[in-house]
Amino acid sequence: MRSVRLSGALAGFLAAGTGAAVADNLTLYCAADEAWCQQVARGFEEATGITVDMTRKSSGEIYAQVRAEASNPKGDVWWAGTGDPHLQAAEEGLTEEYVSPNATQLRDWALKQAEASGNRTVGVYSGALGFGYNKDLLAKNGLPEPKCWADLIKPEYKGQIQVANPNSSGTAYTLLATLVQLMGEDKGFEYLKALHANVNQYTKSGSAPIKAAGLGETTVGIVFMHDAVAQAAAGFPIVPVAPCEGTGYEIGSMSIIKGARNEEEAKKFYDWALTAEMQSKAKDVKSFQIPSNKDATPSPLSPDLSTIKLIEYDFKKYGSSDERKRLLQKWDTEVSSLPQ
Question: Is the separation of the CB atoms in 192 and 149 below 8 Å?
Fold first, then answer.
């Protein structure tokens, strides 16, 4: 949530009273893990000499900020986070159309994201939704091993589960949209109501639930599987799970904010962020998503999407402004308002 001014000398200053852009400067809104955001910001500085002012927030929070700042944009690039709010921002005209010369290096799913948005966003990584559990706590509490979405609504898991709030978290919105597509809207919301009874906390950040599970603060965290893998790789007693019924996935995306004060620097960042060299470095900060550049090298620990039962996630529909607003309002009214 904090804003970080990274090292590097400014090449120029704001012209007095004009609101002109700072030369060789970039304001980056980042929705990935803090360590990855820092790596990306520093890496771009080192590659270009452009100073980066980076703010890390969750996807929903960045979308809300970009929307609030529309008449006087403060940010230049929104990098990472689930694609649904990027698509909503594109539909609402909050982001700029841009086709990078590096787009030819990208996987089909990344290009489909660009096509769905009228080239106002593009895919930078992908990852499957799932959950993880703390095997030590599971054994201590005598709980059965959860393998399916259906397991998480059993009464024995009451108070044992954390998931983020879909209003602030792209991860949790992906869960909401996944269950509606997997089960149908009526059954999906019945499931969410049953899950609500077992949730001990709705977090702001999508990755927070599995970090809490790693620390023994909750037994199960519903997250993207790569976040569960990251906790296991860090030595915590976490077991990642791909739900047996099938699951949705994200296309982490990137957008240039409409009216960006540093548009040329934003385009340079956009191009750089699509290179294989840049994307291959994610594993160095224990980020285990699948990169969008076909020549980038993911970690050998990254979940193999070909082995996971993935639904045909309708990014265009569930990333649309009207559908997103409708589902979030329905969740607020029918789920979060219920007693626990």
Answer: no
What count of Cα atoms within 13 Å lies in the side-chain half-sphere of residue 61? 18
**Tokens read off for 20:** 């002109």
Let me know: does 122 contact 106? Beta carbons within 8 Å. Answer: yes
User: C-alpha angle 292/205/187, rounded to 5°?
Assistant: 85
What is the predicted pLDDT for the residue at 317?
A: 95
46/193 same-domain check: no
Q: Over the Cα atoms of the chain, what is R_g?
A: 20
What's the total number of domains in the chain? 2
Alpha-carbon gap, residue 122 to 87, rounded angstroms:
9
Tokens standing for residue 314:
């309708």
Name the pTM for this structure. 0.88
Enumerate residues 6+ apart whose C-beta is below 8 A from 332.
Answer: 167
Residue 276 CB partners (closer than 8 Å, separation 6+): 105, 291, 293, 294, 295, 296, 297
- Domain match, 131 and 85 both: no
The answer on pLDDT for 325 being more than 70 is yes
H/E element, 131: strand 122-134
